[in-house]
Amino acid sequence: MPAPIRLRELIRTIRTARTQAEEREMIQKECAAIRSSFREEDNTYRCRNVAKLLYMHMLGYPAHFGQLECLKLIASQKFTDKRIGYLGAMLLLDERQDVHLLMTNCIKNDLNHSTQYVQGLALCTLGCMGSSEMCRDLAGEVEKLLKTSNSYLRKKAALCAVHVIRKVPELMEMFLPATKNLLSEKNHGVLHTSVVLLTEMCERSPDMLAHFRKNEKLVPQLVRILKNLIMSGYSPEHDVSGISDPFLQVRILRLLRILGKSDDDSSEAMNDILAQVATNTETSKNVGNAILYETVLTIMDIKSESGLRVLAINILGRFLLNNDKNIRYVALTSLLKTVQTDHNAVQRHRSTIVDCLKDLDVSIKRRAMELSFALVNGNNIRGMMKELLYFLDSCDPEFKADCASGVFLAAEKYAPSKRWHIDTIMRVLTTAGSYVRDDSVPNLIQLITNSVEMHAYTVQRLYKALLDDISQQPLVQVASWCIGEYGDLLVSGQCEEEEPIQVTEDEVLDVLEGLLVSNLSAAVTRGYSLTAIMKLSTRFSGVNRIKKVVSIYGSSIDVELQQRAVEYNALFKKYDHMRPALLERMPIMEKSASNGPTEIVQTNGETEPSVVDSKHPPPVSQPANQANDLLDLLGGNDVVPVIQTTVPTKPASAGGELLDLLGDLSLSGVPTPAPSVATSQPSFLLDGLSSQPLFNDIAAAAIPPMTAYNKNGLKIDFTFERANPNPNVAVITIHASNSTEADMTDFVFQAAVPKTFQLQLLSPSSNVVPALNQGTVTQVIRVLNPQKLRMRIKLTYTLKGSPVQDLAEVNNFPPQSWQ
Amino acid sequence: MMRFLLLFSRQGKLRLQKWFTPLTDREKKKVIRDVMALVLARPPRSCNFLHWRDIKVVYKRYASLYFCTGLEDQDNELLTLEVLHRYVELLDKYFGNVCELDIIFNFEKAYYILDEFLMGGEVLETSKVAVSVSMENADTLQETMEEYMNRPAF
Predict the structure, then answer these.
(1) DSSP A592
(2) Which residues of A touch B82 (CB under 8 A)?
(3) GAE domain spans which residues (chain A) (predicted)?
(4) In chain B, what residues touch A131 (CB-CB under 8 Å)?
């Protein structure tokens, strides 16, 4: 049998193949030759054959028949054989196959070989692909080598130990004694791998972490090594662009991060060195920036002093302005990690971050988008949204869905006004309509329903949008729904917010019917438009056209449309008397939070138990100081509610604050004849109602709820009930929710109304408003209200340790609340 | 730690693959296919980092070869660029003005150099000199044996 061809020759031959088929043929031929050679158990050429096999394996061809041959090579005495054998083992074998266990004995022997390079091979193989069983068997050998004075072996043993620990965490204890002197080595290879080993141990076990902090005094040692690296002169062996051993520096910084996290003493011990590294590192090359990056990450994670943190954020700010894309990318990623904890500091760089939205690089754009959404708050919402909408217009399709969702979420949390909110959503639907999430349509409809005063404006804008373009389905669906609901407002030209357009009923029906027949409309959209047409039958004067449309679709091929049309037809024919009731305006829908933990808004019923007990006026159930405030607001027991001519005999102390609060409230409206009022007004309210159940059932509020206050993350919604027995009393439940990331404690809500009303404030459900909309505080207000209700509210709470106080006027009570 | 290290050409030919986590052959092939597609699709002046699954992919192009590695969350991307650069420098020192052909015809040497520089996904030796010395000594060991046996290395 002729000698097998050499590796180089094979490679050369295969590269001359012009087609895949030719290559396959050559490979098959050679594989056959190799197989027969293996069968002959030829020791001389085994390593040559395995080498060739590895080459073919890299090209993607199967090579499993060489696995046992690798094992034979490993067992050979020749270094060349072992080298190729171990390489083959690493490439062809994996721990899923039992074959690999056969290696264990060889490795064990080689770990004790006289030649360090053979030992090195064994350590390397074990450290790269050793399975848990192998690790268990050989951990003892590795531990022995970890204590050797041979630095070549020691560094390999350290990384091998890392692998063993990753595979079999229980063996960690075993390596502990050997780590004692690792850091006193001079050899950088050993130092580096030791730091990696210590990092692995500290990450995996809190006990180890504590041990290294306290007993071993690891932090000072690391600080010393780092200092030497920085201060030492030029060392040609470890120098990279003027910096001494950046790999070691970065690993030390990373270990310091783990040691300093949540530990004051350790953090303090490393403050100086971190400041030194942060200020002295040369930033002209990538190397320096790599070290700075790691330093910043460490500073942000440990309990560093504020000066250091500011330094870190400023470094990130400088990174953002760097020409190098990689550095900008890294800055954006780090800022994203820190934006929760150091929100204000990151806000300072907002304009730079927003500029990154215009970067050409896809990775940078994505990070900038995520960060921009994290930075949106009540103060910058308008400016940010402008930028984000511009981004939405011009970005690649892969971003549009995420951007649209982000815009919706941000708009929902921070919308400064209903009109702005609706405008923003319309903008998104018109520019990126096909990319929005499925639930955006019902969410938007809900939002529109709830903004009662915007109905005319909304339907007008949607109608105009429909005239322009009917291809974006979510927009079309929302528009048809609105036209169906508020078509009467549309044709009557009632819009307050902008110039009302002249639209006739026929034009509206034209548009809706156009949707039904258009090829661009999805089946769902057609359903929406048919229903909208039907609803207009109670809102428009001319019903015949609608009847015709409905009857035509009674024979539609689309089953859904057909069913709807048939039912609507029946409505016209047999149940015409029910039609108005069925098709009347939709009531307000209960809103559930769309972001974060869903918290269904507490309905009045839930607060009942707590309120039943505290029927007494506030002074009794609330702490004394609160009682005084409330007395101030309400003028105590002596306030005469209604008759204007009588001067109220208020205690002097109450006067100041009361006047402050109510001074500006213009008391419009004629007071109706006061109910025969007893001297003590709180008990009057009580007397009338004490025997009644306090609240109605929640048949959907006939009075729509409203948002009374929404600022700095605190949002107060009012929901209304009519106390049944006395329709002159409106029961308002306030729901306070908090979208910031910290709880609001000591939350106190106070309200004052003009003298023409009487108001009673019952005790709140709690005085802590949990963060991130995780819960609401509710409180019940009862108002005796003959006319248009206005209220001034005062809020006090503590957020992140600092007290906050705010006054606001609430004017947007829905008309039904005082009729 | 690094999860893998791949070297491939612009035409999508794999020149070196080092895996630091256990994966089946099928999984490996999938990773190679996906990562190669992502990296080769990048425009020339893009940033060297991208996100794939839960891995940060760092890649750098040197002449006709892409050096590409997958990192875990804690790893420093900028430093990894230095790691890739160091590997290229080591190859350059060993082969003398290394080019893709050197790596094709001497792939096993490229692996040996890699194994002196990295292990288990971490940097093993930070000194260029030390790695070169180890390679020289190991090669001498090989030659000596071969001379002794009077046979050519494969």
Answers:
(1) B
(2) 240, 246-247, 286-287, 290
(3) 701-814
(4) 22
Put simply, the chain A residues between 219 and 238 with a CB less than 8 A from any chain B CB are 237-238
**Are the C-beta atoms of A161 and A197 separated by less than 8 Å?**
yes
Phi, psi torsion values for A93, nearest 5 degrees: -95, 150
Q: What is the dihedral of CA B108, B112, B114, B118, to 10 degrees?
A: 140
Write down the residue that tokens 């609160």 correspond to: A626
The residues with which A745 forms a beta bridge, in sequence order, are: A798
Say how far apart CA A669 and CA A692 lie, in whole Å. 30
- DSSP for A429-495, please give it: HHHHGGGS-TTHHHHHHHHHHH-GGGHHHHHHHHHHHHHH----HHHHHHHHHHHHHHHHHHHHT--
Cβ A371 vs Cβ A336: under 8 Å: yes
Q: How many beta-carbon pairs below 8 A join chains A and B?
A: 164
For range A270-299, the mean pLDDT: 93
Q: pLDDT band for A68, please (50, 70, 90 cuts).
A: very high
Instruction: Yes or no: say if A532 and A481 are a contact pair by the CB < 8 Å rule.
Output: yes
Single-letter residue type at A663: G
CB-CB under 8 Å, A7 with B154: yes
Four-residue CA torsion sign, A80, A81, A82, A86: positive
Q: Which of A318, A322, A321 is nearest to A295 (CA)?
A: A318
Query: Which pLDDT band holds residue A36 (cuts at 50, 70, 90)?
Result: very high
H or E element that contains B51: strand B49-52
Q: What is the pLDDT of residue A576?
A: 83
Tens digits of residue pLDDT in A374-423: 999 888 899 999 999 999 988 888 888 889 888 988 888 888 888 888 88
Better-predicted residue by pLDDT, A122 or A650: A122
DSSP A698: -
Tell me the nearest-neighbour CA distance from B63 into chain A, angstroms: 20
Average pLDDT over chain A reads 81
Residue B21 has pLDDT above 90, yes or no: yes
Q: Does residue A240 sit at the B interface (CB-CB below 8 Å)?
A: yes
- Nearest 5°: the CA angle A110, A113, A118 is 65
For residues A66 and B95, what is the distance between their CA atoms, to the nearest angstrom?
29
Nearest by Cα to A762 from A746, A744, A745, A783: A783
Average the pLDDT over A669-685 and give the result: 38
What's the N-to-C CA distance of chain B in angstroms? Answer: 34
Q: What is the mean pLDDT of residues A485-489?
A: 87
pLDDT for A696 = 38
pTM above 0.80, yes or no: no
For residue A809, give the nearest of A739, A730, A751, A733 by alpha carbon: A751
Pairing outcome for strands A729-738 and A776-784: antiparallel
